């Protein structure tokens, strides 16, 4: 069934998928090269990584139309590992050149294993728990990061140093960027049969090539960064990494910690991108399947000499906006990227950087959630703070830290609000029994307020605590109820507990078997589970 769906997805919209894939492939080239420079490795390693990530996730991933490749979020994490590996390689009795790169390949094997394990354990579903303000903050922050990353392309090599463009060089760059954006904005209003991004790149590249304009190109960008060019062969099996484990020595903690960070960053960015593409296409992908595909792709990268990576939100949005919806679009992008390396390097190196910058600027405009400005004063203050904080942390630190911080902030806000919702309505029955009708959730955050509702010393001899409108959510809630019941019993008063769930009764009776006499069973008792490690099913 899975194979049938995959094949069907390949044949749904071939024309748009192929054209969109070619557009994405052109946009992938400078991104992969730039992130390879960030990590301190050869550009071809970045391009190989983008190819292997792209082809494997396109074929086996959980989100058709989503593009994966070498990413900046992961490249930043790799820098220290690669530098340390190179340092160790120079100090060995027999020095090993580029040992840091070999350590990266070894690390990617662990990264892939962790990500596959996350998919097998079905952890991908937890992305659905990310609050909407965090999602909006992530989108805004990433749009800003993409924008800032493009500003670095407005520099040129002057006397061996990278300096900001000026004079005619800057004017040409701005003019070509503006032309690219104008084509991408205007063409869809005339026709949607051809991708606007691809058309813009071809038109601007034609103007530069035939007009013999002296502007920054993909080729000059690679040379300015210290690379030799795009041209290369097929990725080769890195069998030497299995003989280099001995070089790690006392650095295993760094290898494993880096692997966990890379795996976390990769999965968070991939699953967040998957969630965004789901919303854009009004379809639903499989987070768990994507985890497994991402892990498999990173293992292949480690074995065949790629830098690894994850889903790329910018290229994914280019793909979706260009009409790419199926797996064919991602596969075409990956194969086209490899073909550029094998056969088309001289031609691709002539593409002006301005055309690709213009495409990415349009991605920034399309990615940023402009509606957030309109709703900031309409949503709760805590949600507004979370949205702004996640955006800022994404720019300041990285995506993983921003999302984790946003989820924690949202969880604490929810817990605080829920903690203040506990109520106790009090009434006296005709027989003199005082009834506490509890309303609201009882959990770790509301136990203090719950305890203050009772007046043990002054209450009458008969007490009834009714949970028909409340739910005990965790062990702290059960413990609070047990303590308050024991206080009444210690004061010689009779207490009755009504409308408890089976879980609550089981836990209370484990600790206090004598509670069987004070728990009132009823057909109206609610049924829900309590989050505690005391249940037999969870031990």
Automatic annotation (TrEMBL):
CDD domains xrefs: STAS_SulP_like_sulfate_transporter (cd07042)
Keyword Transmembrane: yes
Keywords, alphabetical: Membrane, Transmembrane, Transmembrane helix
Domain STAS: 431-508
Gene3D superfamilies: STAS domain
Localisation per UniProt entry: Membrane
Membrane-spanning parts: 44-61, 66-83, 103-121, 133-154, 169-187, 194-211, 252-277, 298-318, 330-348, 353-373, 385-416
PROSITE patterns: STAS
Membrane topology: Multi-pass membrane protein
Location (main, coarse): membrane
Name of the molecule in the record: SulP family inorganic anion transporter
Organism of provenance: Jejudonia soesokkakensis
């Amino acid at each position: 069934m899975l194979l049938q769906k995959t094949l069907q997805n390949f044949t749904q919209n071939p024309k748009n998928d192929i054209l969109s894939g070619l557009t994405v492939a052109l946009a992938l080239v400078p991104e992969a090269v730039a992130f390879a420079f960030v990590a301190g490795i050869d550009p071809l390693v970045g391009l190989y990584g983008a190819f292997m990530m792209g082809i494997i996730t396109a074929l086996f991933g959980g989100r058709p139309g989503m593009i994966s490749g070498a990413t900046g979020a992961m490249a930043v994490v790799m820098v220290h590992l690669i530098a340390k590996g190179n340092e160790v390689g120079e100090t060995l009795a027999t020095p090993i050149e580029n040992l840091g790169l070999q350590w990266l390949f070894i690390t990617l094997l662990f990264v892939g294993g962790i990500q596959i394990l996350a998919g097998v354990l079905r952890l991908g579903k937890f992305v659905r728990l990310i609050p909407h303000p965090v999602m909006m903050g992530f989108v805004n922050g990433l749009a800003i990061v993409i924008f800032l990353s493009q500003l670095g392309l407005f520099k040129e090599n002057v006397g061996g140093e990278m300096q900001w463009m000026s004079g005619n060089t800057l004017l040409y760059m701005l003019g070509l960027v503006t032309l690219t954006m104008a084509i991408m904005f205007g063409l869809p209003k005339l026709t949607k049969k051809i991708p606007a991004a691809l058309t813009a790149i071809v038109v601007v590249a034609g103007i530069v090539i035939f007009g013999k304009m002296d502007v920054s190109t993909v080729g000059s960008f690679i040379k300015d960064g210290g690379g030799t060019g795009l041209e290369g062969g097929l990725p080769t099996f890195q069998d030497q990494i299995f003989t280099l484990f001995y070089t790690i020595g006392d650095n295993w903690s760094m290898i494993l910690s880096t692997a966990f960070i890379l795996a976390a960053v990769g999965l968070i960015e991939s699953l967040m991108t998957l969630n965004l593409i789901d919303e854009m296409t009004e379809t639903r992908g499989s987070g768990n399947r994507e985890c497994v595909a991402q892990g498999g792709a990173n293992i292949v990268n480690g074995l065949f000499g790629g830098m690894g990576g994850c889903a790329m939100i910018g290229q994914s949005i280019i793909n979706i906006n260009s009409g790419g919806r199926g797996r064919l679009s991602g596969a075409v992008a990956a194969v086209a990227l490899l073909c550029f390396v094998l056969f088309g390097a001289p031609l691709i190196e002539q593409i002006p950087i301005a055309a690709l910058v213009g495409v990415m600027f349009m991605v920034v405009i399309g990615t940023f959630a402009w509606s957030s400005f309109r709703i900031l004063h309409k949503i709760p203050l805590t949600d507004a703070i979370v949205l702004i904080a996640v955006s800022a942390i994404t720019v300041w630190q990285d995506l993983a830290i921003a999302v984790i911080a946003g989820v924690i902030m949202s969880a604490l806000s929810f817990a605080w609000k829920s903690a203040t919702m506990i109520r106790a309505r009090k009434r006296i029955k005709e027989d003199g029994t005082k009834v506490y009708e509890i309303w609201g959730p009882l959990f770790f955050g509301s136990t203090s307020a719950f305890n203050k509702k009772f007046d043990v010393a002054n209450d009458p001899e008969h007490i009834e605590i009714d949970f028909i409108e409340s739910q005990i959510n965790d062990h702290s809630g059960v413990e609070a109820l047990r303590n308050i019941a024991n206080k009444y019993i210690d004061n010689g008063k009779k207490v009755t507990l009504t409308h408890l769930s089976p879980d609550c009764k089981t836990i209370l009776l484990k600790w206090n078997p004598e509670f069987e006499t004070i728990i009132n069973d009823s057909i109206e008792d609610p049924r829900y589970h309590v989050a505690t490690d005391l249940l037999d099913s969870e031990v």
